[in-house]
User: Fold these one by one.
Assistant:
Number 1:
Amino acid sequence: DADVTQTPRNRITKTGKRIMLECSQTKGHDRMYWYRQDPGLGLQLIYYSFDVKDINKGEISDGYSVSRQAQAKFSLSLESAIPNQTALYFCATSDTIKQYFGPGTRLTVT
Amino acid sequence: GQQVMQIPQYQHVQEGEDFTTYCNSSTTLSNIQWYKQRPGGHPVFLIQLVKSGEVKKQKRLTFQFGEAKKNSSLHITATQTTDVGTYFCGTGAGSYQLTFGKGTKLSVIP
């Protein structure tokens, strides 16, 4: 949905670098999520936030951190990127029924 | 959290043939959601099932939730090239903290 935007859309970085992926939404939802997608592994939840003051770890939070700067903004950081963090990253928001995904950020760590 | 197994991982069909993907769990599920991800795109919500034995249809797509609420299926009748993509099932507390299956990648041969 255009209501959920992610920047950058593509990023190549080197091992050991710190990188931030940003997500913004105009849907007015309190709930936001970060997922990682690897081929054949589906969508794995990294972190989720139910409001600005509520942040929770997902299945695979090691090596990642997040910041919820406002209701509309949820950022994902890799403090020291490693090659096995090469993946497609999706941000999502949700209402009471469904999740709305952003277009994704393709991250390559060399 | 609840786990769901999705089969098959890949399916190649001739255009016009039917297609089915299955989502199975060893525990009773509160709900099941289905999402479609087109190649190069992001997951898009298709439907949610919550009732035992529920069947819902969307044009050529038929979604079922098992009587025991431990499995679900998505059936596409007479596939078209526009059906190409990866289909994911997910489960959780409403739309929150969804756990996704690994997806079924559908290829349609014209």
Number 2:
Amino acid sequence: EPEVTQTPSHQVTQMGQEVILRCVPISNHLYFYWYRQILGQKVEFLVSFYNNEISEKSEIFDDQFSVERPDGSNFTLKIRSTKLEDSAMYFCASSGGPGQASSGNTIYFGEGSWLTVV
Amino acid sequence: AQSVTQPDIHITVSEGASLELRCNYSYGATPYLFWYVQSPGQGLQLLLKYFSGDTLVQGIKGFEAEFKRSQSSFNLRKPSVHWSDAAEYFCAVDGRAAGNKLTFGGGTRVLVKP
């Protein structure tokens, strides 16, 4: 079964450093997402991306965050200057193939990238 | 604003016993509904989903869920729990707006006693 893959699985970084989390979505999917889960809390939506631009973002997704699809297969989340409170599991997800509507599709999640900011 | 509530934070069940996890949502229209499972250190795996039609949906690993419009609920059930079902279970709602954005409940952690 096709899957979403994420790297790295774990990363420890110092406060103020830049971090890039990488994702390879399912190959024919057109909609891409980042979610995060702070330890012990709910999974929260960060951003959705379609047709090479952000389609929606949450209030968490401030100017420190950016997303990019640098080529036909990767989807990245960059945190420009990490803060302690950015420590969380970050999930990449994808949905919706060609011909499918923009809503009502199953969202497939990767295994997550644990980010620890020290 | 749409919200998803999972009233039980922890549930402990004996192996072989039945399991029911509760999920209530608050939204103006019937959303798309999902249950995901997260095993320790793992990602989110889709168990099942409800979009329309038959209100009892079957999923993987022997799970099923029933959509009840009158109660705004989408409870997950399994008749006989296995030790490998110990995990955290998340109910999620897609409000049918463009973009497949999911709102998650707080999760229910299931512990299975031998």
